[in-house]
């Protein structure tokens, strides 16, 4: 998300880079480009006008830091105002003691409520909570069965020490002619069962429509009045732009939602909803849905999202993803094996799988500063990882342990077994060998980085490396002799 917006905003602010100072004329000129970019990204026009005027006022009211250029100063101002526009950051929910805490989920049909239910249940299960998910959508065909399937998938993952259970009464669905007022009964029954069975949380998945109408709001208000949920969360499709903002305002006006979850945030949409919904509704953004899997729900951090928009990356989120997928003890063992040159193809495969669990590669690389725009039009073939896994899976146990044993005839057999070409097998072996040598040169025998690694160009590399320094000195002396 934000690729187009990042590109356009970046170009507008870079126009200031050649200016000697910030003036009202060049600031307004730059903000004209930013304004156009925001409108094209489907940000609400009222939000755009207010935001741009605030940036201009702030930029003209501050002195330019001597160490910064005007373009850099403007990026700082825009970043601050973006954080204010989307903030505050998500805060942890308040849990009722004794339980259950009642959480009501609402939103338009197709916004991703059912999938988000599964993600919230998965998160709370991983925190050790006992969750009951109730199917209160009795309007959409097969909605009860769909939610039950999602809940069963979450419970079967085995993540966390908590539990996720399902509650539904499919016989009360609209197709059986009994839907009017039945959703309230389902919610009450679910809460009573949760109390009897000692659940910590009840998550109510309510009905949606293709548009906001009185019938939908009447049912939701009836549920709110009957069960008095402790928290009401609105799921908004990040791809729907202005419509998302209008529907969010309508829901908030009738229900006073406590927070907004932006679903489908990993899409290629323009991202206007993320910049508009907080200012228009007054309800904070609490979570971002960044994929289809049950564990792909992130807390919302305004500063990180603002950094992504301005091409500054989001290294903190990248580190957190890595921390969640890689065990620290396993990582240390792997570092020692790398340093001693004992890395096997099984180790290599486990590293690939850990990276893939973190999310799409293009998305991960986009979190690195400056990489978003560079990767915008670059095709990244995720299926290449499937082929690598297939190749390694076609090796024997001894070949995976000692890759040096793989010669032409073995490579041909492995290619046949994996459905690839022999050249692909040979290329993988060369890449594995090169990576092993590079890693060994960077790490000491204890698995920790050397004080003077032999590879220039990496953080901390080259400090105190007398060989590199002597080569540079010799090169300078050579140039000096040629000049004379």
Primary descriptors:
flat; 21 helices; 484 residues; alpha/beta; eight-stranded mixed beta sheet; 4 domains; 8 strands
Which secondary structure elements does this structure contain, and how are they paired or packed?
Blueprint: H1 3-14, H2 24-40, H3 45-60, H4 70-86, E1 101-106, H5 113-126, E2 130-136, H6 143-156, E3 163-167, H7 182-197, E4 201-206, H8 214-227, E5 231-237, H9 242-255, E6 259-263, H10 272-281, E7 285-289, E8 297-299, H11 302-309, H12 315-325, H13 328-339, H14 345-357, H15 361-365, H16 371-374, H17 383-393, H18 397-401, H19 408-418, H20 422-442, H21 466-483
Parallel strand pairs: 1-4, 1-5, 2-3, 2-4, 5-6, 6-7
Antiparallel strand pairs: 7-8
Description:
The protein has helices spanning 3-14, 24-40, 45-60, 70-86, 113-126, 143-156, 182-197, 214-227, 242-255, 272-281, 302-309, 315-325, 328-339, 345-357, 361-365, 371-374, 383-393, 397-401, 408-418, 422-442, 466-483; strands spanning 101-106, 130-136, 163-167, 201-206, 231-237, 259-263, 285-289, 297-299. The chain is an alpha/beta fold. The chain folds into 4 domains: 3-86, SRP54, nucleotide-binding domain (Four Helix Bundle (Hemerythrin (Met), subunit A), Up-down Bundle), CATH 1.20.120.140; 101-312, 3-Layer(aba) Sandwich (Rossmann fold); 321-442, 434 Repressor (Amino-terminal Domain) (Orthogonal Bundle); 459-484. It has an 8-stranded mixed β-sheet, sandwiched between helices. Residues 451-484 have low confidence and may be disordered.
Number of domains: 4
| Terminus-to-terminus distance | 56 Å
Strand content: 5-15%
Query: Count of DSSP E strands?
Result: 8
Secondary structural class: alpha/beta
Overall residue-averaged pLDDT value: 78
* CATH H-level homologous superfamily name of the largest domain: P-loop containing nucleotide triphosphate hydrolases
Strand order of the largest sheet: 3-2-4-1-5-6-7-8
From the alpha-carbon coordinates, what is the Rg to the nearest angstrom?
A: 27 Å
- The CATH architecture of the largest domain can be named as 3-Layer(aba) Sandwich
